[in-house]
Amino acid sequence: MKPKNAIPKPPWLKRRLPTGPEFESLRGLIDRGDLHTVCQEAHCPNIWECFSRRTATFLIMGSDCTRNCRFCAVSAAPVRPLDPDEPERVARAASRMGLNYIVITSVTRDDLPDGGAAHFAATIAKIHKRLPQAKIEVLIPDFKGRMESLEAVLDAGVDVLNHNIETVPRLYPAVRPQADYRQSLTLLERARRLDPGTAVKSGLMLGLGETADEVLGALADLVRSGCGFLTLGQYLQPSPDHLPVERYVPPEEFNEWRRKALELGFTGVASGPFVRSSYHAKDLYENKS
Questions:
Q1: For residue 151, which of 112, 90, 186, 194 has the smallest C-alpha distance?
Q2: Which of 7, 144, 168, 273 could form a disulfide linkage to 214, CB 3.0–4.6 angstroms apart?
Q3: Burial per residue of 70-107, b for 16 or more beta-carbon CB atoms within 10 angstroms, e otherwise
């Protein structure tokens, strides 16, 4: 169903979908392992490319979320108890995929006292055991500001700590009504202070109605919080029930945002219409820019 009054997608957002044996092989491995990926649950436009390259972002703690952000395709529904076997299944799948850079994210679990931090830590520990040389990036929720939860994840040993601010502060009531902009910045700042050796990363979606000055202000806030890595991508409306796209940002503008972000002090920036939090995450981490 096409969203009402939808802005037609521009040519740069139309792409061929690569399919083939690698894509089907990886999808089968994930299905047989009873695993979830954010690629599938969030309707990521890069799933065909990433699965064909045998990469994926593991989504832990189930496929249902306790929040209902108006930009996100992940289901907001009653959640189930955590599966204690999931960390081992994720580690086993990462090993079978031959990964040396592993990205783990989760739904938001406000129902859990620690927000799921212990489950993150258990998953990280299982991966370290099976793949001791692998780099690990985590994309975490805000844990409702619980710094002990952040510490538990960092203590487990990660190379990149990612938490997205998603948009500019003015748009939070519409885009992330259950989140707090300053709380997210504080989490990133604390991560940098607690473990200076761990890279700190965040990201924003463009096209939700933000102004250029608001984006610059948010990027400056991230730099002051110690964030070194940044992703900027185009917001795409997952369904008619989600927020509409206010504007499609052309590729050349994304290139200009990358330039400005690097000038502000970011170490590595991925900026483009199809960029998502974990898109080419290994390349961003290794190439730094």
A1: 194
A2: 168
A3: bbbbbeeeebeebeeebbbbbbbbbbebebebbbbbbb
- Sole residue written with tokens 């783990």: 104
Residue with tokens 């805000």: 142
Rounded distance, CA 5 to CA 265, Å?
A: 39
The pTM is what?
Answer: 0.89
Report how far residue 207's alpha carbon sits from residue 198's, in angstroms, rounded to the nearest whole number.
Answer: 30
Task: Give per-residue pLDDT as tens, 144-163.
Answer: 999 999 999 999 999 999 99
What residue segments make up the domains of the chain, in order of their start?
Answer: 18-287
Q: Which of 47, 189, 57, 22 has the alpha carbon at shortest distance from 136?
A: 57
Q: Cα separations (Å) of 2 from 5, 11, 92, 242?
A: 9, 17, 39, 12
Evaluate whether the domain defined by 18-287 bears CATH number 3.20.20.70. yes
- Residues 255-274 have pLDDT tens digits of 999 999 999 999 999 999 99
As a whole number of angstroms, the distance between CA 95 and CA 88 comes to 11
